[in-house]
Specification:
Length: 278
Amino acid sequence: MNYVEVTCSLKPQKPYDEIMIAHLADLGFESFQETDSGFKAYISGENFDKENLEAFSPFAEGENVEFSFSIKKINESNWNQIWESNFEPILIGNCYIRATFHTPRKDVDYEIVIEPKMSFGTGHHETTSLMVKWLLEINMQNMNVLDMGCGTGILAILASKRGAESVLAIDNYIYAYENTLENIKRNDCSNIKALSGDASLLDGKQLFDIIIANITKNVLIEDMPHYSNSMNNKGLLLVSGFFDDDKNELIKRAEQFDLSVIGEKAEDKWMSLCFRKK
């Protein structure tokens, strides 16, 4: 499969690059890398619509933002070379996330080794970082956990390392599903099961103590009833992938399905919420 790399430059860069990334995610772009002047966004060639991109206008009238795109096709065989040149190891709390070619560390409690390939989730983006922080705080011992939109499998792997009894990781993007399988094996997490699909796989028969959903606002809103229907009483729902401006909309939606907000985290206008099932 070929990929398309879209390089975006913005003036001013912050916080408009984050706004644009959120909108591009809704258009099907799957992973992003920050640059000095903006970011690079990646999407499969079969899902790329040049006309949609050229008509793309994410900012409100009157906002003084200049932005431009450049488009480049990338062969699948060249993908690893691209991310290896950009991917640096990252330390979040006492969790160290690195690639196979980075030096291991023995001074941390948790080390996760990944090869992202064409999947989103290296820990560098604020949304993933926020979720890692939640998982480092919450008691995971003997919990049944669901990771929706698992990407590289980072969050599922951390839940396993933190003592979860079982973890189900789901992603509707085939490369993410395959990448999660590889990273599960790479981190020796035998209690994680990965599936290819979306929230329609949740039938309400298997109930979870903790659900992780680091996706986008629109998907979170659409899938909220599936999450609620798949949670044990007093279970936790951790969501991220949206801006602080979207906070009230998500809380209102969750309350329709017996979910009460009990905590929040924020980083550079990105937001994460923790809900409890009533």
